[in-house]
Structures are given as C-alpha cells and as structure tokens.
Amino acid sequence: MEKQVLWHIRAATGKAYPNLKLDYPWVQICDIVVRLGPKTISKVALWTIPNQGSIKINTNGSYIDHNDKAGIGGIARDCNGDFVFTFTIPVQCQNHNIAEALAAQYASQWINDNNHRFWEDATFSHCYREANKVADFLAKLVITLDEPVLYHSLNQMPGG
C-alpha cells in the first residue's frame, strides 16, 4: 500500500515539480509533500478614514444570478468618518463585475454633479468586503427595491 501511495505522490508532484526528486524515506517524503501544500495567509481588513479635507466613497456592486437582479450601493464619509450620503440603486447588467464598475461610475458622477474638487486628489483602490460592509449591504439591499434610494441621514437607513 505504501508503494502505491508513494507512486501516486511522485506522479502528482512530478507534473507540478518536474525537478523534484523524491528518493527519500517515507517520513521525509510526507514532510516534503506537506511543505508543498497551499499556505493560508490571513489579513486584517479594516476601513480607514480618508485624509483631512477628503471624502471617501466606498462602493460595491451585486449581481444575483438566479433572479437576474443587480444593484449598486455605496456610502460617502468625510475625514472624521461621519456620514455624508448613501445610495442603493437597481441596475441592469450581466454580471457582478459590471455592477462593480457601475457603482464606481455612479460615485464618480456624484463627485462631478456636486462640484467637488476631489478629482484633483482622487484615488481608486480595492478593499476587501470585510472592510466595505456597508457598501456590500447596500448593494445587496437592491433585491428588495424597485427604485433607486438615496439616504441623506443615518436615520433614514434600514438596519443591517
């Protein structure tokens, strides 16, 4: 049995690592195979406030395949982390990547429409869902909506 397992290990590792020779005792081979396995890396994802005088708009897009519903959501906060506005808007699209792009486009249009000078210092970056929970919630809230909703105070927002 050990020889059969060893043969399968050599065959599998030989494809991924053609220069790897497994001419070692069984215990060493097991150790090598364990070290070749995938490594789990954990990262802490936290929301951070924007620079002084800036507004940060976190956006997200959601696409629900089984019912073809899609939506965008986002929240704007100032340099103190205080609420500026949020949005949740149903959209038409074919996948979540397009929904994500539409959310960023909406935020960009809001900056233009409100005559903000932020384009001078605008930056775009990705953050993980864990640091973007409000925007994620707002984008998914669209499954309960038929029309766009803008919230201009925290009291208007649904719980979640």
From TrEMBL:
Residues 58-104 form the RNase H type-1 domain. SUPFAM superfamilies: Ribonuclease H-like (SSF53098). GO terms for molecular function: nucleic acid binding; RNA-DNA hybrid ribonuclease activity. It holds the Pfam family RVT_3. InterPro entries: RNase_H-like, RNase_H-like_dom_plant, RNaseH-like_sf, RNaseH_domain, RNaseH_sf. CDD domains: RNase_H_like. It comes from the Eukaryota. PANTHER family: OS05G0353850 PROTEIN, POLYNUCLEOTIDYL TRANSFERASE, RIBONUCLEASE H-LIKE SUPERFAMILY PROTEIN. This is RNase H type-1 domain-containing protein.
